[in-house]
From TrEMBL:
Residues 32-171 form the Ferritin/DPS domain. It comes from Gemmata palustris. Belongs to the Dps family. NCBIfam families: PRK09448.1. This is DNA starvation/stationary phase protection protein Dps. Residues 1-21 are annotated as: Disordered. SUPFAM superfamilies: Ferritin-like. InterPro entries: DPS_DNA-bd (IPR002177), DPS_DNA-bd_CS (IPR023188), Ferritin-like (IPR012347), Ferritin-like_SF (IPR009078), Ferritin_DPS_dom (IPR008331).
Length: 172
């Protein structure tokens, strides 16, 4: 086991005392769910910034600005997800390396820089995260953690709106 893997496992199992009345088992499962989405969302944010920096073509400035706005929205959710994790007594495993090791978001396709190709790549990734976030709403609800379900509901709404902004460039 590498040092990084050992550190990650130790962090993931760490919990701190809390007066939160959710059962310890519920909190443990919610923390795991939140940390998975922290990794996925952090990865998507970094890929969106990559697109922001590297997009080329006649619609450069519009896409450059759009991608920056989308990344900023994801950054807000990253903070909310991490803070919910710690509010439940967990450790938010949210370094770049931790996110990269755990993310389910596909890697941004190498050599993709042309405007609409970049939009397509991001749309696929926003759609994928939207799908897993909707699944997380149901999982949190099944755990009886309404606050985490509500957090994921807001994330889902914003991901859907971001996907709409991206897809509008591909339609027409």
């Amino acid at each position: 086991m590498s040092a990084n893997t050992a550190t990650k496992k130790a962090e993931a199992g760490t919990s701190f005392p809390t007066r939160n009345d959710l059962a310890a088992e519920t909190r443990t499962k919610a923390i795991s769910l939140l940390n998975q989405h922290l990794a996925d969302t952090f990865d998507l944010m970094s890929q969106t910034k990559f697109a922001h920096w590297n997009v080329k073509g006649p619609n450069f400035i519009a896409l450059h600005k759009l991608f920056d706005e989308l990344a900023e929205g994801l950054e807000e959710h990253i903070d909310e997800i991490a803070e919910r994790t710690t509010a439940l007594g967990g450790v938010a495993t949210g370094t770049a390396r931790q996110a990269a090791a755990s993310s389910r978001v596909p890697e941004f396709p190498s050599g993709t820089h042309k405007g609409l190709d970049v939009v397509t790549a991001l749309a696929e990734r926003f759609a994928a995260l939207g799908k897993t976030t909707r699944e997380a709403i149901d999982t949190a609800d099944e755990l009886g953690d309404k606050n985490t379900a509500d957090l994921f509901t807001q994330v889902s709404r914003d991901l859907d709106q971001s996907l709409y902004f991206l897809e509008a460039h591909l339609q027409g």
